[in-house]
Design brief:
The protein is α/β, with parallel strands linked by helices. It has a single domain (about 5-220), classed as P-loop containing nucleotide triphosphate hydrolases (Rossmann fold, 3-Layer(aba) Sandwich). It is built from seven helices and ten strands. It has helices spanning about 45-55, 75-85, 100-105, 115-130, 145-155, 175-190, 205, and strands spanning about 5-15, 20-30, 35-40, 60-65, 70, 85-90, 165, 195-200, 210-215, 220. The strands form two sheets. It has a six-stranded mixed beta sheet with strand order 6-7-8-3-9-10. It has a four-stranded antiparallel beta sheet with strand order 2-1-4-5, with helices on one face. A hairpin with a 2-residue loop joins β4 and β5 (about 70).
Length: about 220
């Protein structure tokens, strides 16, 4: 792992039974880089994202993430590491339906020893950056798709991660709202130096990244 790299995967393989979904992939992401991972459905891109982010263990290979070999970490160690160093954004938002917007944003802080009013302050400041101040007490059911995704982005940022993993973050949004979400992500990348690895099937979105990695049949092409 070079000093400039925040993420390095080497020889990554993932098998489910006899089916090999990722086939010996090696990839690195530099600190502050915005990289898009593209490919047709079934190409292995989401599985590779899961391996690189520590959501799944590889069948073979290693991953160094922000200096830690996450492939030899226990599940408890990995959960703590992800909470403190990594942000996640998903196509389906993954908000807790019974929590309002600010509570969803503050969720990663709940296990942290921090006064409750400070957790709320951090969450509301991030929602303000997402232009959601007036929606912070609303449940997810009262939010639009774009608002839900902005809440999800705020939640991903609450622990000041050095890298964001995004899996089709605009997939459930109309084109105008998707462009708004991309503008937010690009601003985070350029102004704050947050590295981003994003899965997308949208070639127009991929073109806006610093680099595009294309997958086919479990391999980088």
């Amino acid at each position: 792992m070079n000093k400039a790299d925040i993420l390095t995967g080497k020889g990554l393989r993932k098998k489910y039974g006899d089916l090999e979904v990722v086939k010996g992939v090696s990839v690195s992401i530099a600190a502050g880089e915005f990289v898009c991972l593209t490919g047709k459905s079934g190409s292995g891109k989401t599985t590779l994202l899961s391996l690189l982010s520590g959501l799944e263990y590889p069948t073979d290979g290693s991953v160094l993430l922000d200096g830690k070999d996450i492939t030899i970490a226990s599940e408890d160690e990995l959960a703590l590491f992800r909470r403190d160093h990594v942000g996640f954004i998903f196509q389906s938002f993954n908000l807790i339906p019974t929590l309002n917007a600010w509570e969803n944003v503050a969720l990663p802080l709940f296990p942290v020893k921090m006064p409750g009013d400070e957790k709320r302050k951090k969450a509301t400041e991030l929602l303000a950056r997402m232009e959601l101040t007036e929606r912070m007490d609303h449940l997810p059911s009262a939010l639009s798709g774009g608002e839900k995704q902005r809440v999800a982005i705020a939640r991903a940022l609450v622990n000041h991660p050095r890298i964001l993993f995004a899996d089709e973050p605009t997939g459930n949004l109309d084109s105008a709202t998707g462009e708004n979400i991309m503008d937010i992500l690009k601003r985070l990348n350029k102004e704050e130096g947050v590295a981003i690895l994003m899965v997308t099937h949208d070639e127009d979105i991929a073109k806006t990244a610093d680099r595009v990695i294309r997958m086919r049949d479990g391999e980088i092409v």
